[in-house]
Design brief:
Layout (H helix, E strand, L loop, with lengths): L1 H13 L1 E2 L50 H13 L12 E9 L21 H5 L12 H13 L3 E10 L6 E9 L3 E10 L2 E14 L4 E10 L2 E10 L8 E11 L5 E12 L8 E15 L1 E2 L2 E2 L1 E2 L7 E2 L1 E17 L3 E17 L8 H10 L5 E14 L2 E4 L9 E4 L1 E11 L9 E14 L2 E14 L5 E14 L7 E12 L7 E3 L13 E3 L1 E10 L3 E3 L2 E15 L6 E11 L8 E8 L11 E5 L15
Parallel strand pairs: 1-5, 2-4
Antiparallel strand pairs: 3-4, 5-6, 5-33, 6-7, 7-8, 8-9, 9-10, 10-11, 11-16, 12-13, 14-15, 16-17, 17-18, 18-21, 19-20, 21-22, 22-23, 23-24, 24-25, 25-28, 26-27, 28-30, 29-30, 30-31, 31-32, 32-33
Length: 620
Amino acid sequence: MALPLVALIVVPLALTPLQAEPVSETPAPVVATPPPDAPVATQQGEQPEGATVEPPPARAPGLTQENYEEALVVESLVRRGRQVDPAPEGKPLSDVLVDTEEVVAESDPYPDFLNIFHVRTRDEVVRREVLLPLGQPYSTRLAEETARNLRSLRLFSVVRVVPLVGKTPGTVSLLVVTKDIWSLRLNSDFSAVGSLLQYLRLQGTEQNFLGRGKKLAVDFILRLDTLSLGQSYTDPRVLGSRWSFTESAAIIIGRESGQAEGSRGSVSVSRPLYSLSTPWSVSSSVAWNVETNRVYRGADIWQLPFPGGPTVPYVYRTEEIAGAASYTRSFGLRYKLNLSGSVGAYHYAYDPPRASMLTEDQSAWFRRNYLPRAEDAGYVSMSLRAFEARYEVLRDVDSYVLSEDYQMGHWLSATLRYAPPVFGDDTHFTEAGLAARYRLRWGEALTTVSASGSIRRQMGDAATWNNRHWAAELTQVSPKVLGGRFVARGLLDVNIDDLFDRVTLLGGGNGLRGAPADEYSGKRMLLVNVEYRTAPLVIKTVHVGGVLFLDSGSAFNDRPDMVTSVGVGLRLLFPQFNVNPFRIDFGYVLNGDRPPIGSRFTFAGGQVTDLRPSFLDSPL
């Protein structure tokens, strides 16, 4: 009976946002893509791990103030009676000290008996990520990378790595201060417009099983037409090695029929590039997805206008299986160059379900204009990834006081893929994808420019160019203004002769707040978001902030017809339980259709600027 009681207390706080989904669009095929070079990737950078080394203040401030991380460092220094080394570079490393803070500290506004139900991360889990060998010269670069690697584990809300004066003259000690995130939790991702719940994901997770960094999860996903029940297991360090293993499987059930409609799942084994100096990585994966796809506009299935006859419901059966294996060689330290080769194969099949009862003419029209392309192919590919291994730490951008790491300078990814005619001439092609980003910091301001593009050349007798797709994004974060920040984002996504006939839906919680849910559709999208995010009000470490916003966007096929909305919002961050805030927004459309007042509210996890096409990072 104790665990249900704990759940009643913790669940309202531990509904932690999962990674935000991209702007709504018809589903893209599942691809068994090998894990990226870095252990975990985010929109912030090539390696999104942890905080940089920063000296703490001279005295211990209160945990309820904005210096949340610094206070934990100072408390550790006072407890150990140690001092920060202001010039550690090159001194021999004598020892490594680990100080892991409980989820609920004395100053936190939650009962400390909750710590009974959380196994604190074991010291060896922290120590094995330390890249500085004992007895070797201290390196600030490796200390910073150690902190980033620890942050990438997603076990901690705070990671600080601090050099201390060694007990032996002329040496240095390394202090690693971490604060666990509550690991037995109900992670969530959701999108709601007024009373319409478009998407809900609840994941009961033990993210740090027995304090060893393993992840066990049961997964529940609710969509307008289906629900799915599944499980997953992730071991980032199999038997203490550098190998990682991930598996997941789920059954998909139709909400109306109550019958099983399909399943999805994946298995992946890899040895990732766990540090900037790691010379090689290898990975293999397989994934499948069998289900019935129903494309909604608002609360109803989209009825497509069939010429000269009744409408056609946008419903189709999906069968996707994919597998791949890759090997990567990594070069350089400051300026990284990763070269990868991979082989893979996939089977994609899409058909109208019998329940739609389409005529032959309707079925042919539906396949020609809306269904994704059915395709079986085997391929080989070569990839190049180049970036500058330079990182900056900012706060009060997305997650208030917690450290946010950004890879600075250039980032480039290029892929060339060739599919021989193993399964016929229709699947004989060459395609290329290119993605680039440049990020520049101006004092406390941050500018990010991203662009990507892809194209395919169909080979054989019917040689032609197709699958032309490109996108661009500009994001600007201002210096602090009245304690808060302005954040502006412009996004353009253009699909031309897309073989998979993806359609973008815009309106409501997916970027155009205040508009009717999924009101606008097209194969191209232009979206602008401007926000002023206030400084947070800190109430016993709970961070509450406000937002003023302007959204303007259009989903279109030929020319954009911009719809603009303005509004206000609220952001909530509980640093003991999550690193991303929850958002509640109310929007008012200035020049388009306005839904009922209740439908102008949107509720979701993360910031609206997290909603971006994955194509910008991975065009193939």
